[in-house]
Amino acid sequence: MAAAPSAGWRDEYASERDASASWDEDPAIDLEMSPAEDDAPDAWWVSLMNEGLDTDPGWTLAAFFMCDLGSAMVLFALYTVAQVSVDADFVLAYALAKGPLRAPRLALDAVVAADMTRRWPQLARVRVTSLIDAGTDALARFKRVWRSDAEESSAGGTAGSSAGVTHETGAESSKKSGAGAKLAAEARSLTDKYGLAYMAAKNIIGPVTMVIFYVALKSGIDVQALLERALGSAVNTSGAGGAAATAGAAAGRVCLSSFTSTALFPWVVLGAGALGPVLGRAARGLSKAE
Q1: Helices 9-17 and 159-194 meet at what angle, rounded to 10?
Q2: What is the pTM of this model?
Q3: Of the candidates 271, 216, 220, 248, which has an alpha carbon nearest to the alpha carbon of residue 86?
Q4: Are the C-beta atoms of 23 and 103 separated by less than 8 Å?
Q5: Three-point CA angle 69, 287, 278, nearest 5°
Q6: By C-alpha distance, which of 101, 75, 97, 83 is closest to 215?
Q7: Each residue's pLDDT tens digit, 22-42
């Protein structure tokens, strides 16, 4: 779920936003599956999460990042102390599972999320959409600040020579952002429909996909070539694959930490729900003190 990856939805949503426009224009993700009806009161953990999401969604998001990243870093430290070695096939399987299948996997995520919701209806009651909205707002503010700084730094430069480059880059960026925005909207719709079950489903399917790829690679199957034929486009694994080649054992442990930290997802969620309101109250107290 990179320098210090973690399991969880951070890599998931980042990949979906940047996914290639080659994915089907209208992926069949509307499976007409609604969460099961449940008249029981909210479980304690549902109330805990919703309280943080309702009162301090931004700080709950920050707490989620802290717990998610922290769990991966702790695991990385343990693997480093224990001198755990990770082979190249594991790193390649990690890269393949984390990259090209993000967009096509939306439908499968929805199927698993729907089944989990039927089995555990309480999962759908966690209003995770507030978390997604907080992340989207934070990203939008960051982009506005970044663009403002970029425009200021480029002011007074060679406007004539840079105009063509800016126009071309803007067109490519608009195309990618359009496809990414549609995928992000679809992911948000599924999150709104299935709640925490959707995030849990992604944390199950991701590791399972990676294990399948790893077993296939160890069996001598060219998984990357198969994915390229299936997706109709080149599969780029230069990020993780290159890191493995240059950093060796450290890169392998990073991938292993990210992979195994998915098992800590329930505790990450609970930690974020408990820590988010605390951070929010502390921030408000500091602002009043100033």
Answers
A1: 130
A2: 0.66
A3: 248
A4: yes
A5: 40
A6: 97
A7: 434 444 444 444 444 556 788
